[in-house]
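ZP: hey, is the 2-acetamido-2-deoxy-beta-D-glucopyranose complex queued? I don't see it on the tracker
AM: it wasn't, my bad. submitting now with these inputs:
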Amino acid sequence: MAAPGASRKISAASARAHTRKKQKSSSFPVIRGIVSKLSVVLLVGVVAWLYNAARPPPPNICGTPNGPPVTSPRIKLNDGRHLSYIETGVSKEKARYKVIFIHGFDCCKHDVFPVSQEILDEFGIYLLSFDRAGYGESDPNPKLSVKSIAEDVEELADKMALGSKFYLMGFSMGGAYVWSCLKYIPHRLAGAGLVSPGSNYWWPSFPKNLSSDAYRSRLAQDQWAIRVAHYAPSLTYWWNTQKWFRPLSVIAASTNILSDKDRELLPKILARKQYQAQVRQQGEFYSLHRDLIVAYCSWEFDPMDLKNPFPDSKGSVHLWHGSQDQAVNVSLSRYISQKLPWVQYHEVPDGGHFFPHADGMSDTIVKALVLGDQ
Ligand SMILES: *[C@@H]1O[C@H](CO)[C@@H](O)[C@H](O)[C@H]1NC(C)=O
Ligand SMILES: *[C@@H]1O[C@H](CO)[C@@H](O)[C@H](O)[C@H]1NC(C)=O
């Protein structure tokens, strides 16, 4: 009797325990289930919101019915895109030197260096400046890359019938893309000039301490924008359009990156106001953000591994940098010039990022480029 009683007791106790357990385990998983369902919903919501916020609106293509007008001549590339250009200097038939200019970030073809008419005439220089893909009146390139920019330059030269060789001059981020041309189309170049060129902090040849020092000498907001472009390129549009953190200073039209010397040149730089609206007219994503992503992605080559494109001295490569440049730290250009002895390095004492706008500087640059030995 004791046994069954005990057994009953035990079973009753275990039944109660079981019930308690059941009650416990029946309420918590429900709450846990609700919480985890809620967090999934929340996560999906955040992802959906971010996905929407990160997705740029479609481009406002030049020359389409609702798009901005086409005001300059354009060539049509083999893939159907147009590139818009302006020509200055002597006619290309008469020219002794044909120079293509590659503009910088948040710029356009009208930002070509102010080379004087006297120098253009005296030396017989034809100067061609074009809107890079997505800027101004040139169609955006969904496949924009470090290489595609060099290919655009080559195709532009061929469509414009510039002949087998031409000179190249690039400013700021346009200077960085001169490296692309030295990599992919060196046989087409008669000479090249990089002026206040941008550098990519992830080029492997830079010593870590050097690139991180140069990187940290930038404004904090620019460090963040570059970090996002490099590590999370698909968030670049969102980062530079959201309102909580400050975007890249240039995008926000901040003048914080101007050195004292640059500020002296402000009246000349502000002449850009006449055409500034053209720069981003097709959409900031298609002009600025794609440019940022390509400039700061992991490049498929390191410029410091390039071989001398002119071993026979029938051409030269010049690199100009102002020692007071606050947009792109001079230390990286100094290092590149040490690594590449075939680059003729010109450091401009007291020069800021925009030193080519100082009196006579653009003339000096273009003369050195075409004469090769200055
Ligand atoms: C980086 O480190 C090297 C040696 O490791 C040193 O020679 C060089 O001066 C350092 N450069 C900077 C910018 O700190
Ligand atoms: C360039 O970076 C160095 C640190 O590497 C810093 O000392 C210097 O002030 C920076 N130059 C400019 C003009 O910002």
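AM: back. The two ends are 115 Å apart (CA to CA).
ZP: great, adding it to the tracker
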